[in-house]
Amino acid sequence: MIRSILIVDDESSDRYIASRMVRKAGLTADIHEFANGEEALQFILTRDEFRRACPSPSTTLLFVDINMPRMGGFEFIERLEAAVEGGVVNSACVALMVFSSSLSPLDRKRAQSFRIVNGYIVKPLSVESVQQVIEGLTAQA
Q1: What pTM was computed for the model?
Q2: Which among 7, 51, 88, 111 could bridge 98 via Cys, Cβ 3.0 to 4.6 Å?
Q3: What CA–CA distance (Å, rounded) separates 17 from 116?
Q4: Sheet arrangement for strand 117-122
Q5: Using an 8 Å Cβ cutoff, are 8 and 2 in contact?
Q6: Of all helices (H) and strands (E), which one includes residue 117?
Q7: Which residues pair with 7 in a beta bridge?
């Protein structure tokens, strides 16, 4: 069961669209928006729900853009994966989807090289893509 959603994107319009699509897909989870990876990582590292045992797998769903200022998506993913490997974040609590306007096969391949990445979605986020993510996570549980 998804309890919260983090949308990490420097474009406010993309965050707005993603939030609307999540709601239209029927998710009632809390939505938190961040303009860069640094803000999102700080949020995750300071919250208890990311460290303890989760009531169910993938209680937090993250949509992370690749190209952002300060801390881009790939750096964010690298640092989050390091936190998981270091035992700071419980990987069962997080499902991470890269969502980007990039159609580059290299970006997709790099995203898929991370163990904590569950998928890659090309922007804009749609109701159908959110529903597919939910169905995929439900099938994995």
Answers
A1: 0.92
A2: 111
A3: 24
A4: 30-34, 4-8, 60-64, 94-100, 117-122
A5: no
A6: strand 117-122
A7: 33, 63
Cβ atoms of 36 and 65 within 8 Å: the answer is no
Neighbours of 1 (CB within 10 A): 12
Element (H, E) at 6: strand 4-8
> For the residues 108-127, what does the mean pLDDT come to?
95
- Residue by residue, DSSP assigns 41-92 as HHHHHT-GGGTS--SSS--EEEEE-S--SSS-HHHHHHHHHHHHHTTSS-GG
Q: Determine the pLDDT at residue 54.
A: 73
> Is the alpha carbon torsion for 120, 91, 137, 49 positive or negative?
negative
| Structure tokens that stand for 132 in this block | 């597919």
Say how far apart CA 127 and CA 49 lie, in whole Å. 27
Q: Can you list the domains of the chain with their CATH numbers?
A: 4-140 (3.40.50.2300)
pLDDT level of residue 49 (50, 70, 90 thresholds): confident
Contact between 99 and 60 (Cβ < 8 Å): no
Q: Residue type at 131?
A: Q
